[in-house]
């Protein structure tokens, strides 16, 4: 396996000492090493992958030095616009190293939301005319990486590494993440699901949230007719807005996460401006990208309530324990939307947490049957 330190040492030898991106489980050991060994000003976790490409562009314009941009391959969609319209050699010709986790690689079993992206990742890089190398645990890093970086420098262009599973050796972070809150996400979800009305329409966010929603429904003998947003991180609230506008006679509840909300924060003022009275936006805030390694978000350093109210939400509440959550729900439920409920939670989930056993198509059909759209 490739040692994160060896990887970063080669980058330093080629003048790369600035890192930005969105965490991915295949890159968690590399990101943990970067976080421990570089200053906060040298490592910025961005809201989305397009932001990271833009940040790397600004870094080059301001310093004359290339940056490393990391992401899951699903993030290539967010990155395509700045890569083609800014960084491409036919526009501003900005050198940067893209480090892309290859989820859904053909021949490797993965979740449904990763399959198509895994199939097309190499084609995406090829059609973008980005020189790339596939990196795995047996790659000769001392040969492969310098050659790719030399291409980047000589041609002033983005280049990429497509990272296979188990490429990087384990690295234990020196930083200790602690939470001021006791309630875990699954506890909060259990309380919320029990308080929702049977007619409520639920859209839940990516990662462990939808997995826990599915398992909680199953444990209670309920059909899971909630829309599980297994892919498309950051779009949960927009999906919920679309449903709320189409089904004005039903209450629609978006169960969001802090990382998801931040990834496409512009959805919040759009919701506020269109003012769907039947929309409740719940943000489960553990200040972490927990599903891909537990890297921090900035959600503990901003005032989410002020953002919601300034964006046109009619009301906002914040709770951080089970008693307060149960006590506030009747007020939330009785209010005209759009409204936001922030639930501050601890990091953590069960080791035996499963995944949805229904297919995405089955989930879609159950959801649309519940909403009366079929």
Automatic annotation (TrEMBL):
SUPFAM superfamilies to which the protein is assigned, alphabetical: Thiamin diphosphate-binding fold (THDP-binding)
User: Has the keyword Lyase been applied to this entry?
Assistant: yes
The UniProt record lists the Thiamine pyrophosphate enzyme TPP-binding domain at 227-343
InterPro entries assigned: Phosphono-pyrv_decarboxylase, THDP-binding, Thiamin_PyroP_enz_TPP-bd_dom, TPP_dependent_decarboxylase, TPP_enzyme_TPP-bd
Which Gene Ontology molecular function entries are recorded, alphabetically? phosphonopyruvate decarboxylase activity; thiamine pyrophosphate binding
Record keywords: Decarboxylase, Lyase, Pyruvate, Thiamine pyrophosphate
Q: Does the keyword Membrane apply?
A: no
Q: Which terms under GO biological process does the entry name?
A: organic phosphonate biosynthetic process
Tell me the Gene3D superfamilies matching this sequence.
3.40.50.970
Where would I find the Thiamine pyrophosphate enzyme N-terminal TPP-binding domain in this sequence?
Answer: 6-122
**Any matching Pfam family:** TPP_enzyme_N
Q: Which PANTHER family match?
A: SULFOPYRUVATE DECARBOXYLASE, SULFOPYRUVATE DECARBOXYLASE SUBUNIT ALPHA
| The name this protein goes by in its record | Phosphonopyruvate decarboxylase
Species this protein is from: Paraglaciecola hydrolytica
């Amino acid at each position: 396996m490739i040692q994160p330190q060896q990887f970063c040492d080669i980058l330093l030898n080629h003048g790369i000492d600035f890192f930005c991106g969105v965490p991915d489980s295949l890159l968690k050991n590399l990101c943990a090493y970067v976080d421990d060994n570089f200053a906060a000003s040298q490592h910025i976790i961005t809201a989305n992958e397009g932001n990271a490409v833009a940040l790397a562009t600004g870094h080059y314009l301001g310093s004359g030095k290339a940056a490393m941009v990391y992401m899951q391959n699903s993030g290539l969609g967010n990155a395509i616009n700045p890569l083609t319209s800014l960084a491409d050699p036919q526009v501003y010709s900005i050198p940067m190293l893209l480090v892309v986790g290859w989820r859904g690689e053909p021949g490797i079993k993965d979740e449904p939301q990763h399959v198509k992206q895994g199939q097309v990742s190499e084609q995406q890089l090829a059609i973008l005319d980005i020189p790339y190398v596939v990196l795995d645990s047996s790659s000769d890093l001392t040969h492969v990486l310098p050659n790719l970086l030399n291409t980047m420098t000589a041609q002033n262009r983005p280049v990429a590494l497509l990272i296979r599973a188990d490429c990087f050796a384990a690295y234990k972070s020196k930083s200790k993440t602690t939470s001021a809150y006791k309630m875990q996400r699954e506890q909060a979800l259990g309380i919320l699901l029990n308080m929702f009305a049977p007619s409520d329409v639920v859209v839940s966010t990516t990662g462990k949230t939808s997995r826990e929603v599915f398992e909680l429904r199953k444990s209670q003998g309920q059909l899971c007719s909630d829309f599980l947003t297994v892919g498309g991180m950051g779009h949960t609230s927009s999906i919920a807005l679309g449903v709320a506008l189409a089904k004005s006679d039903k209450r629609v509840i978006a169960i969001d996460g802090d990382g998801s909300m931040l990834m496409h924060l512009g959805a919040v003022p759009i919701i506020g401006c269109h003012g769907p009275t039947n929309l409740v936006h719940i943000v489960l805030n553990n200040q972490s990208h927990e599903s891909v390694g537990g890297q921090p978000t900035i959600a503990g350093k901003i005032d989410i309530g002020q953002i919601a109210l300034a964006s046109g939400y009619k009301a906002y509440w914040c709770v951080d324990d089970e008693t307060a959550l149960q006590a506030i729900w009747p007020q939330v439920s009785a209010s005209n939307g759009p409204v936001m409920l922030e639930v501050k939670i601890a990091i953590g989930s069960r080791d035996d947490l499963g995944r949805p056993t229904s297919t995405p198509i089955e989930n879609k059909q159950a959801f649309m049957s519940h909403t009366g759209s079929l």
